[in-house]
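Before drawing any conclusions, I looked closely at one protein, both as residues and as discrete backbone shape codes, quoted below without any editing:
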Amino acid sequence: MAAALLANTLYSIGFVLEKRALSSLPEVSIRQPARLLRLVLGSPLWIGGSLALFAGFGAQLIVYRTLPIAAAQGIFVSGLVLLVLLSARLLGEETTGRERYALGAILAALLMVVLSLDERADTVSQAAPYPLILLVCVPSLAAGVWLYGSAERRARHRHRMPTTGVEYGVAVGLLYGVSSLAIKGVSSYLTSSGLGGAVVDLLRSPYPYLLLFTGAFGLVMSQAALQRCRASLIVPVCTTVTCLFTAVLGTLSFGEALPHDPLRLSLRLAGTALAVSVLLSMPKHDQSAAQPTVGAKELTPP
């Protein structure tokens, strides 16, 4: 539990620091990854945010060694509250009424998932068949890259409305969901004895290569999206997709059984369905950014 709360804090701080650093940098694009890396690596603030995220990754490894996947996701998503508070305080980002209701519904949905847990019955699995992991992860990676590319093509239209970043958040969330499953797989090789053999076995598994792919593509995609959109919206969407992806597909892939109690099973299924429906109904365009300023209204002839 302490490691999960620490991971939440580190991830929230890391995203906010990166967003603040990106706000002062020239526009970055996934079509110029070398330039993007050169710009962000030249920002001490961005490097500080990245170190916080990397430390959060280490805490996440500890969590997956001791908690079931679904339970871990329920705790991780509580970090959204801290993220929104930090975004408002340090970035000056304000959410609209509709977005606040949506975030509240997402938190309620994931609370239902947490309430469906039973520590007496839930087990922590440490292994999954490699073909099943690849069957889950490869199409998800392809879907994430395709969705991001579609959002980029629409963003280049001359008369487009400002985007909220929901599509970007879903796309990056799919990549981070795969990364989360890979972290879960890596954690199963963290043993106290036989380190050499554990490393060899790990390199024979698909997990380090999934982490390498999601790390490289996720870094470029997330930074470009984070610069264009509000962290207080895109990060919660990304986190929700990641948590749902990991809780549902990770539970099935690693063989952690669903609740047998009808009430707990209903809570888990209803919470998952509510979160997905809220994501689908969230606004795709940023209406607040599209509104003219007061000064512009005063200069407009009657």
